[in-house]
Amino acid sequence: MSGVTGAAGLGAGAAGAAGTGVLAAVGDVLALTGRHLRHLRRTPEKLIAVALTPVAMVVILGYLFASVVTIKNSGGVEYHDYVMAGVFAQIGLTCIGITALGVASDLGKGLIDRFRSLPMARSSVLVGHTTADLVPVAISMVAVGAVGLLVGWRTDAGPLSIAGGFALLLAFAYAMLWLGALLGMVLRNMEAINGISALALVILSFMSNSFMPLSGLPGWLRTVVEWNPVSTVSEACRVLWGNAPASSGGSLPMQHPVLVSVITVGALIAVLIPVALRTFRTAAVR
Fold it and tell me: ABC transmembrane type-2 domain: from which residue to which, for each copy (predicted)?
């Protein structure tokens, strides 16, 4: 009986230690998230950098081009309604470079080395960084939505469906934040990060259905563009918000954009987080 009691005591102690470890890790994440948010308050230009390009795209595409661009088989969907989902998705792409530069800067200054010397969970450094970077993403989405409403954007869906679209956008942006963190640890060079993140923004934005339907593309290119995560996320938001054209094509991503987007974004997060954390173990000591 004493052996059983001792084993039970050890099991309870291990469970208690595990619970304490989880709580400590959560506390570390909250502390580092708060640090990054305080830094954001002192450097509002980071928020401006995230919001400026999407807001400009809403004004240029949703207002200036709306009178000259017509969507075939639109089912009554106006161009400024069609383009908004693509502009929201572009916010996540913009954050790749912002997060990459922040992580590379912390590595260059030795800040992450100092964090590693503290008794904290190593994963909390990147988790806190990416969690804090979601705040400017959310604020940018509010700003873009407000400008979109001013230029005539409207949704034709219920509150839950609208919220589901924004939840999907935030999940996609979170995946892109982890991609940015990985990019920052691998490259470290500010010029290289700026160049590659800008290239990714241009290619992933314009090789998608963010701003134009895919009906005029050649067959092979259309297949590539349809499977672009930006295309599926944009189309999923259009479906959830009631802004989708009457006919989007017969491919799987365009027939079931919400399902494909959820699976794709979930897979990106499931892959990028472990890879980034594994890279982090050696990046700070190189």
Answer: 45-283
Angle formed by the axes of helices 45-57 and 123-150, nearest 10°:
40
Tokens 């599926």 locate to 232
Of the candidates 187, 123, 193, 148, the residue with the CA atom closest to the CA atom of residue 57: 148
Nearest to 187 by CA among 99, 72, 266, 122: 99
Closest to 129 in 3D by CA, of 75, 194, 174, 166? 174
Tokens 């089912």 sit at which residue? 75
Burial class (CB in 10 A: 0-12, 13-18, 19+), 114: exposed
Query: Whole-angstrom Cα distance, residue 185 to residue 180?
Result: 9
Asked if residue 169 lies in contact with residue 263, where contact means CB atoms within 8 angstroms, the answer is no
* Residues in the chain, overall count: 286
Instruction: Return the top range by mean pLDDT from 67-71, 159-163, 245-249, 250-254.
Output: 159-163
Q: Do 241 and 85 contact (CB within 8 A), yes or no?
A: yes
The structure's pTM equals: 0.85
What are the pLDDT digits (tens) for 44-55? 777 777 778 888
Question: In terms of pLDDT, which residue wins out, 235 or 75?
Answer: 235
User: What distance in Å separates the CA atoms of residue 57 and residue 186, rounded to the nearest whole number?
Assistant: 30
Whether the Cβ atoms of residue 244 and residue 258 lie closer than 8 Å to each other:
no
Handedness of CA 241, 243, 247, 249 (dihedral sign): negative
Q: How far apart are CA 170 and CA 265, in angstroms?
A: 10
